[in-house]
Write a structure and sequence with these properties.
By secondary structure, this protein is of the alpha/beta class. It has 7 helices and 10 strands. Helix 1 runs parallel beside helix 2. The chain is globular and about 45 Å long. It starts with a helix and ends in a 7-residue tail after the last helix.
């Protein structure tokens, strides 16, 4: 899977108060984990992925980064993963409930819920997240209702939501969510990725620390 705008948005948008331990679920090439290691200079960042090639690629990217001593990748399923409580857990999860026509099995796993559905994701986040921790995801807008319901059923409160549009005249295609266990009021916002052919000022301001050029 190529580095996508959804992953960059999540890595730049999520907010946590000085997390000591961070977990990236389904890390792929490791871009979100790397962004969070850059942002939170005192955090230990762990990343998991069941796809062997992705795990190796993430590990190689971690090793050549300036934050290698604080980063580690594991080739494990979330359902089997054991770790100490995390202060921040992030995921750009598989989100198609039914088979998505992709010839590459690895790409299929990354996009479809065959190995990790929303219920399993949230149930295991409950197991791994500290009491005051933050859980953040990026999803297609069409998945918001079911994912929000599952969060509520598992004792989470959504504290931040960002609806993401490709252009101002388009409907929101993506949504960024932050959920916590402690009661919290919802703050909503919106973001347009492009103005015409160019990135919007808001998108550039959010992601400026991570692109080599824009």
């Amino acid at each position: 899977m190529k580095v996508g705008t959804d992953a960059v948005l999540l890595g730049a948008w999520v907010q946590a108060d000085g997390p000591g331990r961070i977990l990236d679920i389904g890390t792929g090439c490791g871009v979100i984990a790397l962004m969070l290691a850059q942002r939170y200079q005192n955090a230990q960042v762990d990343a998991i992925d069941i796809h062997e090639a992705s795990f190796r690629e993430a590990g190689e990217n971690f090793l050549v980064s300036p934050w290698s001593v604080r980063m580690k990748a594991y080739p494990e399923r979330l359902q089997d993963y054991q770790g100490e409580a995390y202060d921040l857990i992030v995921s750009n999860p598989p989100y198609f409930a039914h088979s998505y026509p992709v010839k590459d099995p690895a790409r299929s796993r990354a996009r479809n819920q065959e190995s990790l559905d929303f219920k399993a994701l949230i149930t295991n986040v409950v197991r791994l997240l500290s009491e005051a921790g933050v859980f953040a995801v990026v999803l297609p807008q069409e998945c918001l209702s079911i994912f929000s319901s599952l969060l509520g059923n598992n004792g989470f409160y959504i504290r931040r939501q960002c609806d993401v549009k490709a252009h101002a005249h388009k409907n929101a295609a993506l949504v960024l969510l932050e959920a916590v266990r402690l009661p919290s009021e919802l703050t909503t916002e919106s973001l347009e990725i492009r103005h015409g052919k160019d990135y919007s000022p808001a998108y550039l301001a959010l992601t400026k620390d991570f692109y080599l050029f824009s």
